[in-house]
Specification:
single chain, 284 residues, alpha/beta, Helicase, Ruva Protein, domain 3, 2 domains
């Protein structure tokens, strides 16, 4: 069964009475070259267990299962379960969990399902919830080594931007705090059924090589980052005064201690400067 053949896909979906949900951002991959590349770049190999987020009809799931020791796929749409029973029937190393990944206890999943295995995440993420899922995975500090995901091309540009440039955002700072990120390859909109209105890209985040602050400092750091980027065109003094209620004089003092101008905006500070600024501001 070729799950990227459009005729086959339509026949399976029709037979099960399945219709695409715009609310769930469902766009199934029909380009046969994409999923093998995601699997090969996403640590789907011997010694690894892989968590997949969203299965579609199992195109990526099957490629992961061919390579990894075990695959646990978290799929929110219960209508896909009978389809997956059919399309993944040949694999005995796949488990489907019918839950919202944002509510799923992934730490317990890892403990229960991947004993003795290294762990990676691979997914074709719905565009509407890309950032929340990525930040949930990062902030949870799960014992995972990499996150390889397909996202909207514009989101990939922001995720992979250099901190301290105009393309960066709070999510850019987040991924660089927890690890390192790189874009692997682009994916055209014609690779999906139905075709979305935008192109996509596959990125990989390698964890464990990022920054480490104590819990209190980390919480304050991310409060500053989120406040600054929520009003990114304003100066740091104005945005932090507006969102966090920090007196401008304290912001100016923290900036001055680092040799930064009073008119600095958050998008102009690189990762090292952001961490130093947060620490200086906290001391104030």
């Amino acid at each position: 069964m070729i799950l990227t053949n459009i005729g086959t896909v339509k026949e399976i979906l029709s037979r099960h009475g399945f219709s695409f949900s715009k609310g769930l951002g469902q766009n199934f991959i029909v380009n046969p070259d994409i999923c093998p590349r995601i699997a090969e770049n996403g640590n789907a190999c011997k010694g690894f267990g892989v968590i997949e987020i969203g299965t579609g009809i199992g195109v990526l799931t099957s490629e992961l299962a061919k390579r990894a020791e075990k695959v646990v796929a978290v799929e929110i749409d219960s209508r896909l379960l009978p389809i997956l029973d059919e399309t993944l029937a040949d694999f005995d190393n796949v488990k489907i969990i019918n839950e919202d990944v944002m509510k799923c206890d992934l730490r317990r999943v890892i403990t229960d399902e991947f004993d003795g295995l290294r762990v990676a995440v691979c997914a074709n993420l719905p565009y509407y919830i890309t950032s929340p899922i990525i930040m949930m995975l990062l902030e949870s500090r799960l014992p995972i080594e990499s996150i390889t995901v397909m996202v909207q091309k514009e989101a990939a540009q922001r995720l992979c931007a250099k901190v301290g440039t105009r393309d960066s955002g709070a999510i850019t700072v987040g991924v660089n705090y927890y690890g390192t990120v790189k874009k692997l390859f682009d994916v055209s909109r014609g690779s999906f059924m139905p075709a979305p209105n935008v192109d996509s890209a596959v990125i990989r985040i390698d964890l464990g090589s990022g920054c480490r602050l104590d819990e209190k400092s980390e919480k304050f750091f991310f409060s500053v980052v989120k406040a600054g980027f929520s009003q990114r065109r304003k100066t740091l003094a104005n945005s932090l005064a507006s969102v966090m209620g920090i007196p401008k004089e304290k912001v100016y003092s923290a900036l001055s201690s680092l040799g930064l101008p009073e008119a600095a905006r958050i998008e102009q500070l690189d990762m090292e400067q952001l961490i130093a600024f947060s620490a200086a501001l906290s001391d104030k």
